[in-house]
Each structure stands twice: as structure tokens, then as C-alpha cells.
Amino acid sequence: MILVRHGVTDFTVSGRLDGRGGADPELNAEGLAQAAAVARIVPGLVGDQQVRLVTSSLRRTQMTGAAIAAALGVVPEADPDWDERAFGEWDGLTSAQIQERSPMKLARMRVDAAYPPPGGESRSEVAARVGRAFERATAAAGTVVVVTSRVPILVVLGQVLQVGAERFWALETEPASVSIVTLWPDGNVSVPLVNRTDHLH
């Protein structure tokens, strides 16, 4: 599984949350350039293996995925279970604004996987749907490229690496980055690559 985070939007650049159920922003000019850059390297990572490409239902992942799909010569599939976490009432706000308005709720959300932002999803809820999406994506042989957002990528990497809930945010997954998870026939899993971004520079 090749995990690709989408390119930047105006929300990403300004540090505003943009989860499922929110404004659903498109890639901006920088994000489109990042999508083109990551599309140039993914075919080399796939090689001659059979490949599928799955995106979330959000526009920024579909736009990033379209560039990669064109480079691979495949038709992208959409799976809403790969959507970014729903941030509810906090969607569109920066961390500083949330800290100012709801410091106790924000602090709890960061450490309690079962606690959702107001009107949003808890990390446990996101992990459940991403887990279903992961199983569907890896059911067939070959390589699957998944274009999604930060929290779903952290869910996959955290589960595979058995990272404790208190260290959930420790891994970096920058916009238009690439991470790879390899699933072996004997059931073992390895992570040969996390947060590759050299193609952007």
C-alpha cells in the first residue's frame, strides 16, 4: 500500500482544520504543483506490479489522485471511509482559535481517542472506518495507491507500527508525502518508507 497525502489547499496553508462534512476545499496552485510532483514518482514505486488507485471522497484527494491515476494509466476509485476526520464545529478554525475558545476540550481530544470534537468524530470512530477501508483496499493482490488525508494515514501507520494512542501525533505526514506499508503473505507487515517529500524540492 502506497499512502499519499493530498496536496495543499488554502485551508492547509492557513492552518485551518478541514475534515469531512466541512468546506471541502480544492487544491490551490501550490497543491496542484505538488500533485504533479508526486505523480511523477509513484509509477517508479509501483514498478510493473498490478496497481489500483483509491481516493477519499474529498475534492483535494480526488484532484491529487487524478494526477497520479493519469501517470499510472488507471481509473481512480473513491471510498468515503478514507475521508479525513470530521471536526464538527471546529472545521475551518485554526488550532490557536480552538485553543482560545475551548482549551479543555482541545487538550482532551489530543490525548483521549474516544473523545470527539463537538459535532465531529473521535479518533476511535475514524480508526474503525479506516480499518474497514484498509481491509477492502488490501483484499486483492498487487499494489494499491491510497490518496487520503493526514489522520487516516496516521491511523494506518499507528496500527501497523503499534504506536500507542498517546503517541498518535508523533509521526509526520506532510502534504503530498508518500509512505509505504508492505503486507506479506505470512501476515507480517513492514513499513519501508514514511513521509517521503524529496520530490517536492
Automatic annotation (TrEMBL):
SMART domains: PGAM. Gene3D superfamilies: Phosphoglycerate mutase-like. This is Histidine phosphatase family protein. Pfam families: His_Phos_1. CDD domains: HP (cd07040). One of its GO terms (cellular component) is cytoplasm. GO terms for molecular function: phosphatase activity. Coiled coil: none annotated. It comes from the Bacteria.
